[in-house]
Write a structure and sequence with these properties.
UTP_pyrophosphatase-like, four-stranded mixed beta sheet, about 35% helix, Zincin-like, alpha/beta, YgjP-like_metallopeptidase, YgjP-like metallopeptidase domain-containing protein, 10 strands
Length: about 220
C-alpha cells in the first residue's frame, strides 16, 4: 500500500496529484470528495506514483543521508536522540539519557559506524515490531499469521492473504508506537479484506477508530 500521500482539501474543482522531488506525495481534493473515492483514485494512480518515485529516487544525492557524527539526530520509537560517539575497544550502541551512545574503536570509520547503527535498528525492529504484532493479531484471528521484518522502499507494510503472512518495514522502528500499531492493524485487516474496498476501511475503523489520525502522524516528515 502507498501510505505517504498527504491529503489536502481545498476549494477547487478538480483533484491534483503531485509527486515532489523529495518523494513526498500530495493530493489536493475538493471538500465534497469522499474518502472512498480518494482511496480509489490513489489506487488507480499507483503505477504512475511509483514511476515518479523511482525517477526522483534515482536523482537523489547523498546530501540527505546520515553522516554519523557527534550531534546528529536519530529517531527511535518516535523520539529524537542525539548521537554521541565514544572511543572504545568494545563496540556497540546503547540508548541512555536522550543519547545514542555509539562505542567504536575507530571514530572516523564511516562504514563501521553506519553498520553498528543499522544493526541496532534491525535488531530492535524485530523485537519491538513483533511485540506490537503479537499483542494485536488476536483482534482479527486466533491463529497467529507468519511475520517478518524487511527493508521496504515504498511501503510501511504488506499482507499476503493467501500465505497468511504479514511483513513490516524495518524503518517503522523510528516511528511512534501508535503509528506502528496503525500499520499492524491495517495489514491485519487485509486478512479479512484483501483489498482497499469500502468494507475494508469500515472494518479498519471498527478495529481502530482513530486510524486516520495515526496515519497522518506516521507520514509526517519531521
Amino acid at each position: 500500500m502507498i501510505e505517504n500521500v498527504k491529503i489536502i482539501r481545498k476549494k477547487i474543482k478538480n483533484m491534483y496529484l503531485v509527486v515532489n522531488p523529495d518523494c513526498s506525495i500530495v493530493l489536493k481534493v475538493p471538500p465534497h470528495v469522499s474518502d472512498e473515492y480518494i482511496h480509489s483514485f490513489i489506487k488507480k494512480k499507483e503505477n504512475w506514483i511509483k514511476k515518479h518515485l523511482d525517477n526522483f529516487e534515482s536523482l537523489n544525492t547523498n546530501s540527505a543521508e546520515k553522516r554519523y557524527v557527534d550531534g546528529e539526530i536519530f529517531k527511535y520509537l518516535g523520539e529524537n536522540y542525539v548521537l554521541k560517539i565514544h572511543l572504545s575497544k568494545k563496540e556497540g550502541l546503547e540508548i541512555l539519557d536522550g543519547y545514542f551512545n555509539l562505542h567504536i574503536s575507530e571514530i572516523d570509520d564511516f562504514e563501521k559506524k553506519k553498520k553498528i547503527i543499522q544493526k541496532f535498528y534491525r535488531k530492535h525492529a524485530e523485537i519491538e515490531l513483533f511485540e506490537i504484532f503479537k499483542n494485536s493479531y488476536m483482534v482479527v484471528t486466533k491463529n497467529i499469521p507468519d511475520f517478518a521484518v524487511r527493508k521496504m522502499k515504498k511501503r510501511w507494510g504488506s499482507c499476503s492473504f493467501h500465505k497468511n503472512k504479514i511483513i513490516l518495514n524495518e524503518r517503522l522502528i523510528e516511528k511512534p508506537k501508535e503509528c506502528i500499531e496503525y500499520v499492524v492493524f491495517h495489514e491485519l485487516a487485509h486478512l479479512k479484506y484483501p483489498n482497499h474496498s469500502k468494507e475494508f476501511y469500515n472494518y479498519l475503523t471498527e478495529l481502530m477508530p482513530d486510524w486516520k489520525n495515526r496515519k497522518i502522524k506516521l507520514n509526517e516528515i519531521c
